[in-house]
Structure formats: C-alpha cells, structure tokens
Amino acid sequence: MLQKWEFKETDLKGSFEITPFFASDNRGGLVKDYNIDVFKSNGIEHELKEVFYTISKKGVIRASHFQLIKQQPKLVRCISGHVYDVIVDLRPNSPTYGKWRGFHLTGDNMKSLYVPAFFGHGYLVIEDSIVSYKAAEVFYGEGDSGIMYNDPDLAIDWPFDLIGGKSNLIISEKDLNLMSFKQYSEMM
Fold first, then answer.
1. Residue 65 falls in the annotated catalytic set
2. Which of 104, 65, 63, 58 is nearest to 85 (CA)?
3. What is the pLDDT of residues 44-81, one digit of tens each?
4. Which fold has domain 2-187?
5. Gap between the Cα atoms of 6 and 44, Å rounded
6. Handedness of CA 146, 152, 158, 163 (dihedral sign)
7. If you ran DSSP here, which 8-state letter would residue 143 be given?
8. With contact defined as beta carbons under 8 Å apart, do 120 and 48 qualify?
9. CA 127 distance to own-chain centroid
10. pLDDT tens, 78-91?
C-alpha cells in the first residue's frame, strides 16, 4: 500500500490537516510525517527546533495553549490512541479570530495538524494516547499561556460523551486557572 502526502488547508487560514506519506508491505510500514521540502512546496515554512511527546490517559483535557512570547508553530500527530484536537485562531486581525475547529486524530488515521503561530491548541483524550509535537520554536516557560477549555465566548463543543461524560475529565491545576478569551482579547 502506498499513500502519498495530502495537505488540506482549513478555513482557519494557515492551518492544515495533513495526511502523511505512508508505505506498507508484508514487513510492516513506514510513516513520514515531516519533510521540510514537501512542506515548503505546500506553502508551509516549518523548520524544527523541538520535538516532544505527551502521554495521556483517557479523559485528560488540555486547554487551548499557546506562547505569548516566541510563538510556537507546531505539527501535531496522535501516534497511538485517539484525541479530539482543537485549534483556535487567536490572530486579532484575522477574519476568523476567535473561531475554533476540531479534528479526530488517531493512531490509525495518522493525520497531523499544522498549528500556525498565534493559534491556541488543545485536545480531549478519547483513548489513552501518545501525541507527537514537532515545534518550530522551543518551549519558552515565561511566555506559556492559554485559554480555559470551557470558555463561554469560544464555546468549544467538546465530545464529552466519548469519555463517558464531563464528570470523567482529568484536568491539571494549571489548566483550571487559565485566562478567558475576553481577557486574552483585552491584552491584544
């Protein structure tokens, strides 16, 4: 089986849903989810500076995270398991400012999301998961920030039914104390 790269820009300009190169035969398979030249030829300037993984249990929610200083564009892919991944356009002059989109990323579908600078990013873990981040900027703790997962103005429609209800959420203390979208907008 041979599956070629596919780049689909979302309606939040600059963000992409990406199907990676995949080849398989009777030995197994090969997934290539990043190639600088292939990305450039599809209009994405993304040079890696940091690669990391999160390992999360079913029910974990990671709110809409971003860096206020040293924006961290990233390529995100669920290596194993299933996450409902959400991106939020936080570019004040964008026609889609404050809009969000959700995507089911799984180890099986191998899809990636390209999350550009000035976007928030978070996800709900539907099955125990490992998520890969290929970032174009290193983590900068002093600029680390985010918006609450349940912000009423963003009104993200999280599929809590897929984890047995909102009562099964696992959330960090940090994510419980993030700013609101209104507070973010007042800063910009």
1. yes
2. 104
3. 999 999 999 999 999 999 999 999 999 999 999 999 99
4. Jelly Rolls (2.60.120)
5. 13
6. positive
7. G
8. no
9. 16
10. 999 999 999 999 99
The three-point CA angle 81-82-83 to 5° equals 135
The alpha helices in the chain, defined as continuous H runs, are 36-41, 173-176, 181-187
The amino acid that residue 75 corresponds to is: L
> 114 catalytic, yes or no?
no
Torsion of CA 39, 66, 182, 149, to 10 degrees: 100
Find the length of the chain: 188
Catalytic residue among 53, 84, 121, 133: 133
Query: What's the CA angle centered on 146, arms 143 and 148, to 5 degrees?
Result: 160
Place of tokens 């983590």: 139
Listed in sequence order, the residues at least 6 apart from 126 whose beta carbon sits closer than 8 Å to its beta carbon are 58, 81, 82, 83, 84, 104, 159, 162, 163
DSSP sequence for 67-94: ESSS---EEEEEEEEEEEEEEEE--TTS
Sheet containing 21-25, strands listed edge to edge, beginning at the edge strand earlier in sequence = 2-3, 21-25, 28-32
Domain assignments of the chain as residue spans, ordered by start: 2-187
User: What is the residue type of 142?
Assistant: E
pTM comes to 0.95
> Exactly one of 34, 46, 65, 184 is catalytic; which is it?
65
